[in-house]
Amino acid sequence: xxxxxxxxxxxxxxxxxxAEQRLPEDYWQDLxxxxxxAGLERQLAEEARLQLRQEARDTxxxxxxxxxxxxxxxxxxxEQLEAQQLQLEEELQEMQERLQRRSASLGExxxxxxxxxxxxxxxxxxxxxxQQKPRLLDVFxxxxxxxxxxxxxxxxxxxxxxxxxxxxxxxxxxxANWVDAEGRQQKGSxxxxxxxxxxxxxxxxxxxxxxxAVLWSxxxxxxxxxxxxxxxxxxxxxxxxxxxGQTLRLYSHQPDLLERIxxxxxxxxxxxxxxxxxLLVALVQSLRLLAENQRVKRQLQQLDEPQASNSLxxxxxxxxxxxxxxxxxxxxxxxxxxxxxxxEAAGLERGLSWxxxxxxxxxxxxxxxxxxxxxxxxxxxxxxxxxxxxMMASGISQALMxxxxxxxxxVPLLLAHLLLQGRSRHLARTLEAETSAWLASRLGSQTLQxx
Length: 451
What we know:
Layout: H1 2-20, H2 27-102, H3 104-124, H4 129-132, H5 135-139, H6 151-167, E1 171-179, E2 185-193, E3 197-200, E4 203-206, E5 213-215, H7 221-232, H8 246-253, H9 257-263, H10 265-300, H11 311-322, H12 330-348, H13 352-384, H14 390-450
Parallel strand pairs: 1-5
Antiparallel strand pairs: 1-2, 2-3, 3-4, 4-5
């Protein structure tokens, strides 16, 4: 409607303007024709739009019909597949039940096979036969898939069990790689004694699972000699470790005398030095007393000829000088004799005080080493805690070894002091007895001369 009124409005607006101008005679007729043509075009466009909308509706309706048909076909296909799946599941369940019934008798066999295979692998991991036949470990290694064993696998298990049982009672010589005491790998003949011991011409060997045999760095000399003689065929007896290497392991870890001394540290070295010094003094004093005892014995055979080279001779010579004068009083002679005996006794006991002093110092130094070792132990505990005992072993070793060294040093020094003291006192008593007898005989002879 608006489209029809629009030309009229434009005509009303333009009439005053056109009235002032001169228009052609056919102007209004042309304008009417143009307006009629524009309305006809708009009518045709509207009809065309309605026709297109109707065609679109028809197309959508056809597409919807086709989609519904496709959906119906898919639903029918789904129902068909579900029916087939249900049928297949029933068939599968029936086949599983049938398989379970048929394999019920073999299930126990497979279970026993797996158990025996695992047990055999654990046994072979620590068996000496693997040094001779290393392939056994790979054959009986537990499988990851745990599948059904084959006939060949069952036969291999049976043969492996037989070989393991027979190997425990065999003495076999075979070529193998082994490591010497310097860590170098060698290849040579190795003798296996059942499942207990490995040995070769160098001695006893240590077994390591999956590794070449290693020569024990420390082993008893007698066992090493017997192993060499047995391998060479010169002897039928050999030393065995019934603990399969544990005894030899403990023996190899046991420190020797030098290592124990080193564990004592500087305090241990000081104790040993003082102990050696005390024993040296005791040895010198012992030799001196022994020589003095021999000289005194010779002097006892010649009392009339006193010698200055021995203590008895010196005492007798001193008393003889005092008895030259007849006016000498007996009490004075006895006092002179006591003086001479004291001087000689002091010479006989020379050095004993040093031995006694060193014997008393050794346990005190051992106690000092114990205290310093415990201090080091507590420092290690403070820094590293108690989780690793090896961190505390150094301090504990020093504490114990210094105590042992102190006691070991003090005991022989005390014994040496006691023996030397007894020998010196024996000589002193001999001097006292012989000089008293000599003086008594001399005074008796003077009394007879006076009478």
